[in-house]
Amino acid sequence: MEKSTDVRVCGAKLSTERIEYRSPIKFGGRVVTDVVLANVELEIETRGGRRAQGFGSMPIGNVWAWPSSTVTPPQSLAAMKQFAEKCQALVLEEKCTGHPIDVTHAWAGRYASLAEAVVRQQDLLEPMPVLAQLVAASPFEAALHDAYGRVHVANSYDLLGREWVHHDLAHYLTPEFAGEYLDQYTLRQPKPTMPLYHLVGALDPLTKADIDKPLADGLPETLGEWILADGLTHLKIKLNGDDLRWDVARVVSVERVAVEAQAQRGMNTWHYSLDFNEKCANVEYLLEFLHQLEEQAPAALARVHYIEQPTHRDLKKHPENKMHRAAAIKPVVIDESLVDLESLQLAREQGYSGVALKACKGHTEALLMGAAAQKYGMFLCVQDLSCPGYSFLHSASIAARIPTIAAIEGNSRQYCPSGNRAWAERFPTMFRITDGTVGTSVLTGPGLGF
Question: Most buried of 43, 93, 141, 157 (most Cβ within 10 A)?
Fold first, then answer.
């Protein structure tokens, strides 16, 4: 049945901008020195003729979304840009009217054909991964959800109940969600504050002895300086996954620096998350890492909040990597593996106990997977893609509206702070960190909240 609140897209504009990193970041054996943002403006119209504009922004993130030995990073970046351009045409051609959940669901049904066209036109040697498709399309989804809230002069997270959406969650997930809607899995008010996870990259200096040439730009440069300056209580540690001695030593070193800095603050409670970026060859590597860490720094292991994507993202090709034993020690979450409900269900079968949501996989996808994870009693977190400015606010809004998420990752202030400057003036509690938290209480405006 039609709803008077239904909308359709009547205008779309895509642009890109490049931001150079302050310092490089290394993850999964790859080094990244800049970010290309895809920015999208959408205009929508209700059945009654009212119009509004929404905005979406997201790093294209090709190095993370499309790691390859045959497609080079410049090629994958160009392909994802072209995919986004095809999405611009798609959202105008797809004559779909409804709630953003309905409309984006229709868009997603055509992503595969768009990706195939890009691969043919650019003569690439492998298909575009689903994850790369989701990332390139995500700013369009964000812009639509944002515009929907603006045209109804309401926060988009308050427009997820049966009076707004055409179908219950069983339509998008499984029959066990019959009669349920996303308003049951989201909060009507954002959490007022949330701890910020600070990234400790594999190249990041822990002490001044690690610095060859100071950046001297007025920002902290060592981990200890960051802890003291921002009052940090949550640290995400990037690990190699293929060098056990280095990985254990890295966490031990982080613990040593953190203990000293936190003592200066009079703090005795803080947390770590560990991210192997799928580089562990097998679960035995992870188990041995946890064993050695417990022997060398038991306090550090006790501070570990969760472990992120230790082994290969392709769960179907690597069914041997069962996580049951590791998940009995600490929550183990999928990140790169999570692209749809099927991947979530497979991860559960293989012993994963949690999922990492990302705004860059699409706003609708984040909401649906967040609901499914809550239903299944899984650990939930929201991860970053070095999201600057608007894209960080979007990511934080998801974390602040899903009940079981305890903290938010945000590392653009470390690596590309220039992308935050204009937004920091408008939302200082989100970008100027002094007590280790972000002030998410400000994310209550129309649209996505900012």
Answer: 141
> Where does the pLDDT of residue 310 fall: very low under 50, low under 70, confident under 90, or very high at 90 and above?
very high
Residue 26 has pLDDT above 90, yes or no: no
Q: Which amino acid is at 104?
A: T
**Residue 449 CB partners (closer than 8 Å, separation 6+):** 149, 155, 156, 157, 190, 393, 397, 443
Q: Where in 360-413 does DSSP place strands (E)?
A: 379-382, 408-409
Dump pLDDT digits (tens) for 97-137. Answer: 999 999 999 999 999 999 999 999 999 999 999 999 999 99
The SS3 assignment for 446 reads: coil
Please report the domains of the chain, with CATH numbers, ordered by start residue: 7-155 (3.30.390.10), 194-442 (3.20.20.120)
Q: Which long-range contacts (CB under 8 A, 24 or more apart) does 331-335 make?
A: 331/305, 331/306, 331/307, 331/379, 332/286, 332/306, 332/307, 332/308, 333/306, 333/307, 333/308, 333/309, 333/379, 333/381, 334/309, 335/275, 335/308, 335/309, 335/383
Q: How far apart are CA 358 and CA 360, in angstroms?
A: 5
Tokens 């066990």 appear where? Answer: 176
Q: Which DSSP state fits 131?
A: H
Per the structure block, which two tokens stand in for 47?
A: 């059945």
**Which pLDDT score, from 0 to 100, does residue 121 have?**
98
Alpha-carbon dihedral sign for residues 96, 66, 234, 379 = positive
**Each residue of 51-77: pLDDT tens digit?**
999 999 999 999 999 999 999 999 999
**Tokens encoding 229:** 């300056």
Q: Give the predicted TM-score (pTM) of the model.
A: 0.96
What distance in Å separates the CA atoms of residue 236 and residue 416, rounded to the nearest whole number? Answer: 17
Query: 448 in helix, strand or coil?
Result: coil
